[in-house]
Design goal:
By secondary structure, this protein is of the alpha/beta class. The chain folds into two domains: 317 residues, P-loop containing nucleotide triphosphate hydrolases (Rossmann fold, 3-Layer(aba) Sandwich), CATH 3.40.50; 25 residues. The protein is built from twelve helices and 15 strands. A nine-stranded mixed beta sheet has the order 5-4-8-9-3-10-13-14-15. The chain has a two-stranded antiparallel sheet with strand order 1-2. A hairpin with a 4-residue loop joins strand 14 and strand 15. The longest helix has 24 residues. The termini are far apart.
């Protein structure tokens, strides 16, 4: 089949899928962002970046793990994900997911500290709710495989190949590179069904170098540029989500002569990616999280940051190979329950924004009261 015929077949197939009311990707849970970046798509390498403590992992879990899982349940959409936890243990990651589950299903705002009874004993009623959700949570674990024992590129490669062999047929060809050096190279993949397969690496800066790597930078470069871009996304049609920290030195706040922060210099950027900057060429899409509260900014683009505090985040599209970049969308962020949602437009939806402020004040008051009674 020619390249023209393959392209036409793909176009017609996607049109039929859309016509039938189904989906060609997983829509983002943020309406304004989805106007410019319509969906989480196959064959993408997506970088998520920000400074330490900005909520990159929480944003990635909500956007690329929890939301896709719920979407798959309600839309009969085949989805599965391999989560390589290079920073936290698998159990800790799953406990974060339990916090979100309790809020989503039972409207219980329970933090990780609450789950682990750090301050007070976790009520038996909440433990009962977790037990009652066993079927849902076990199904989640079947679709989302959280792994904390693999931290090097080749280990991840072997694990991906093992799963790929279960999901379909890996096609290899013998390549002769001269001097008798023949290698079986992966050139294609025939999946058994139409499963949307996602890989999440949390985070790239913690990946281990191997003997053939000169340094950690080379390990990071090879993992993203060679493994994720050329094999996982291009051949296996996976979505690869890579959490990539900003350089520590970039966090130093800079000021003008009058003492005001220079916002453009403190926002996450492609130039300030930590460990390696070259991988930006391998990313199809790069999203950055910005927290103005961290830099003591009182008002930001019409939002009262003094009032919203650490619950404000802005998501910005820093790079987009397939569409617009330089897009910013303000978000409400609840760190305890790993929940994000869009905020009203500060210019066009002022009444909605005022209602949000009132809601936030009431939520904080309710939470304070429940803590006193807990």
């Amino acid at each position: 089949m020619s390249l023209f015929e393959n392209a036409l077949k793909s176009i017609e197939k996607n049109a039929e899928i859309k016509k039938s009311g189904k989906y060609n990707g997983i829509p983002y849970p943020y309406h304004r962002l989805s106007q410019f970046v319509p969906s989480i798509d196959r064959e993408q390498v997506i970088g998520i970046t920000s400074y330490t403590g900005a909520g990159k992992s929480k944003f990635s879990r909500y956007t690329f793990v929890l939301h896709p899982y719920e979407f798959s349940l309600h839309n009969n959409y085949n989805f599965e994900l391999d989560y390589y936890a290079l920073e936290d243990s698998a159990e800790k990651v799953f406990k974060y997911i339990l916090c979100h589950y309790l809020n989503m299903k039972h409207k219980q705002k329970v933090s990780l500290f609450d789950l682990d009874s750090k301050f007070k004993e976790l009520p038996s009623s909440i433990i009962k709710q977790i037990k009652e959700g066993e079927k849902y949570l076990q199904d989640f674990n079947n679709k989302v495989r959280i792994k904390d024992s693999i931290s090097n590129p080749y280990g991840i490669y072997k694990d991906v190949l093992k799963r790929a062999g279960e999901l379909g047929e890996i096609i290899k060809e013998e390549k002769d590179y001269g001097n008798g050096n023949k290698v079986n190279q992966i050139v294609g993949f025939k999946p058994k069904d139409d499963t949307h397969w996602i890989l999440l690496c949390d985070n790239l800066n913690n990946i281990d170098k191997e003997k053939h790597h000169h340094d950690k930078k080379e390990a990071m470069d090879n993992f993203v540029s060679k493994d994720c871009r050329l094999i996982y996304s291009k051949i296996f049609k996976m979505t690869c989500v890579i959490i990539h920290q900003q350089a520590l030195e970039a966090e130093k706040q800079q000021f003008t002569n009058s003492g005001n922060s220079i916002i453009d210099r403190i926002k996450p950027s492609l130039a300030n990616l930590g460990g390696t900057k070259e991988v930006v060429r391998a990313y199809h899409l790069v999203l950055a999280l910005f927290n103005p509260h961290k830099f003591k900014i009182g008002d930001y683009k019409g939002y009262d940051i003094k009032r919203i505090g650490n619950n404000f985040r802005e998501i910005e599209v820093l790079k987009n190979n397939d569409g617009f970049d330089n897009i910013q969308v303000p978000l409400y962020f609840d760190g305890a329950t790993e929940y994000f949602r869009e905020l009203p437009n500060s210019e066009k939806q002022k009444e909605d924004l005022l209602r949000f402020y009132e809601w936030l004040d009431n939520e904080r008051l309710k939470q304070k009261s429940s803590q006193l009674l807990f």
